[in-house]
Write a structure and sequence with these properties.
About 25% of the residues lie in helices and about 30% in strands. By secondary structure, the protein is an alpha+beta fold. Helix 3 crosses helix 5. The structure holds N-oxalylglycine (OGA) and manganese (II) ion.
Length: about 200
């Protein structure tokens, strides 16, 4: 078990140094495929809903994803496997970076071809509960030419593009990195997750 206890160490060192990092190996290819299949089946049977945007804002200009929040009661087998690993990562991260991450929230997100998410920050207005953004990608054999990169804007005004390949997990500090989802030519599936700290006086 010793190796397993330290399995996130180099990732977390990068996150502490850079504020963002990419991790592979959170789940096996089989577990990742089971999530991808469930996500696509839920999309095909209209169980995903247009994502929420702030009151009075035009959704079509801002974001094009359809989402389904994971419920903690009665999760499916693929969601349970994911939730257990995300929790291990959250606890390791919270300890190593001393972040006080008490829980996380996750949803499936599907972007249909041609849709994206304009440049934004993940902190919800008036609430700083979201500390870490984590995006786990579910797309088998994704080619860069298909687009769909997550463009992460860095402090020096440069950017990095992360392609949504199955098994890739992108982590970044929610309050520090603006980012956008570029449109793709193919259906783009992922799980978006936020690891949260306790906020005194918050209701949710
Ligand atoms: C989000 C988001 C990024 C992605 O849901 O807030 O930025 O790559 N998602 O799907
Ligand atoms: Mn975001």
């Amino acid at each position: 078990m010793r190796a397993r206890c330290n399995e996130f160490d180099s990732t977390l060192a990068t996150l502490a140094r850079e504020g963002w990092c990419v991790l592979s190996g959170l789940l096996s290819p089989e577990q990742t495929l089971a999530l991808a299949d469930e996500c696509e089946a839920m999309h095909d049977t209209h169980q995903l809903r247009p994502a929420h945007v702030g009151h009075g804002r035009d959704r079509s200009l801002l974001r094009g994803d359809h989402t389904h929040w994971f419920a903690s009661d009665a999760p499916s087998a693929p969601q349970l496997a994911y939730a257990m690993r995300i929790d291990e990562l959250r606890i390791a991260l919270s300890r190593k970076l001393m972040l006080g991450l008490v829980d996380s929230e996750s949803h499936y997100a599907v972007y249909r071809p041609g849709t994206g998410y304009a440049r934004h920050l993940d902190c919800l207005r008036g609430c700083d509960a979201r500390v870490i953004s984590a995006v786990f990608y579910l797309n088998e054999a994704w080619q860069d030419a298909e687009g769909g990169a997550l463009r992460l804007y860095l402090a020096d005004r440069s950017h990095r593009d992360v392609y949504p390949r199955a098994g890739t997990l992108l982590l970044f500090l929610s309050a520090q990195f603006e980012h956008e989802v570029l449109p793709a030519t193919r259906l783009r599936k992922s799980i978006a997750c936020w690891m949260r700290q306790r906020v005194i006086g918050a209701t949710g």
